[in-house]
Amino acid sequence: MNSKTSKLTTENTIAEAGSLRMLKKREDSKLDQILAYLPFTSKRRKPVVAVLRLSGAIGKGGGLKSGLNLDNLNEIIEKAFKTPKLSALCLSINSPGGSPVQSELIAKRIRSLADENNIPVYSFIEDVGASGGYWLACAGDRIYASKSSIIGSIGVISSSFGFQDAIEKLGVERRIYTQGKNKSVLDPFMPTKPNDVKLIKQLQKQIHDHFIDYVKTRRAGKLTQNDEVLFNGEFWAGESALDFGLIDGIDDMYSFLTQQFGTDVKIEYMAAKQPWLKRKLGMVSHNLAEDFTESLTHKLENKLVQNRFNLE
User: Fold this and answer.
1) DSSP letters spanning 272-310
2) What is the pLDDT of residues 56-75, one digit of tens each?
């Protein structure tokens, strides 16, 4: 092979190698384009946000009764944090309060799973987030509300009726037997006793102190007013709550999510799975008359609590 032929062969080999590299580059480019549209690639991954709605009075429920309590919510809370590729959890809150124990249990469960899974939690108060409703809101890393939302009522209340005069007029004799001198505290058919009031006040103070400690812990470095202003049971509209450091901003959930995660954010609404009969008939049939009576009583109680904050 002469030098001319050898040189030509070398040039052809180089040209072929260059063509192969260009072809491979084009194929890799096409592959990258295809992969970019596949759901499992990070380039096209949409942020996922779970939304958990907490609406109504807080307390135990059962049968036809509705109520926010950990028994009813634990499954859906766990489901929210198991959402694939979860970026954040939003709490949509509309509650006038209720049971301090259930408020604490629900908030504690949410915080525990949020810390365990390293997921941010954002609370959005709608019409009202007062008393236990605000306790739930404090489970969020940040709290938002509307200008007209009602927020606060960081206090403890107990209420009852006295029927001692009524039964006297009816000629009814009250008979009660106890072991323990304080077992019949706040009996509605007996006159109020100073010691009864003292006992209930002590209990209220302990619960109130616990509530205050929780708010101070969750809102550390953000509160702008002293205890006498913030924790006297008063409630405020959203703008005042923002000035006092009880919330972090005036915003609605959808605007916030668009700003935080973009327009392609995927929202997963969490809903508890209901029994088939309840889904079809809206009721539980095991004891309809008893459930109806309990449900009516529960709804009346909820209405009384809600009416404290209704401004129409």
Assistant:
1) PPPPHHHHHHSS--TTHHHHHHHHHHHHHHHHHHHHTT-
2) 999 975 444 568 999 999 99
